[in-house]
Every structure is written in C-alpha cells, then in structure tokens.
Amino acid sequence: METRCYRRLLGISYKDHITNEEVSRRIENAIEPHVDLLVIVRQRKLKWYGHTTRSSGLAKTIMQDTVNGSRRRGGQKKRWEDDIGEWTGMELRNTLRKAEDREEWKAVVRRSSAAPRRIPNLRDR
C-alpha cells in the first residue's frame, strides 16, 4: 500500500518496470529518510491503548471486552489486545498496569514501536 502511494507521488507507473527498492531509494532522496507507515500505526495504536486504559469512558468498556453478550460466530480471531501484547512482549494484565502510569507507558511505546518521538512533516522543512 505504501509503495503504491510512493509510485503515485513520483509519477511512476507499474508499466515502467521499476522495482520497489528503486522506488524506496527515490522517495528517500526526495523526502529524506522516513519512518515506515506500519511503525507509525503501531505507535499510534499503543498510544491510543494507553489513553483509553486511563479513561473511564465507553471506549475503555468496549476495548476491555466487558460488554455483556456474545459475539457472532465467525468473528475476528485476533483481538486488539493481542497486538498490544505481541508488540510490547507483556501479558495483558501487565500492560493494563503499565498503561495506568502515563510516563511508564510512554517508555513502553518508545521501546515497542522503535519510532522517533516526533516525525517531521514535509511542511516543517
């Protein structure tokens, strides 16, 4: 998905037979080194998890699966918390405890996402 956007930005068609590695090299030359989209998604998802865990709203109730009732058969196999546990390397109960402390959770997000603190925008240059 990401490479498709880069090809469009650079005006490169798939018919031009240019490899994805070459497209990545060209985009890095055009906008300098960048953070991968999946790293940004991981970082934002971890931040949202910490935010909702500290709150007391509907999002927390839904995310922690405390809503009464059962889900339909054939629903999703992987839950939101499964990603959180996989990325942080912690069990769910430990992530809940860590997320309650904002500064401690920020440290977990930095370690887990391997992304810089601030991602510069193109407009900042």
From TrEMBL:
Keywords linked to the UniProt accession: Initiation factor, Protein biosynthesis
Domain of life: Eukaryota
GO molecular function: translation initiation factor activity
Keyword Protein biosynthesis in record: yes
Renumbered residue ranges of the record's region Disordered: 60-79
Polar residues bias: start-end ranges: 60-69
Protein name: Eukaryotic translation initiation factor 3 subunit f
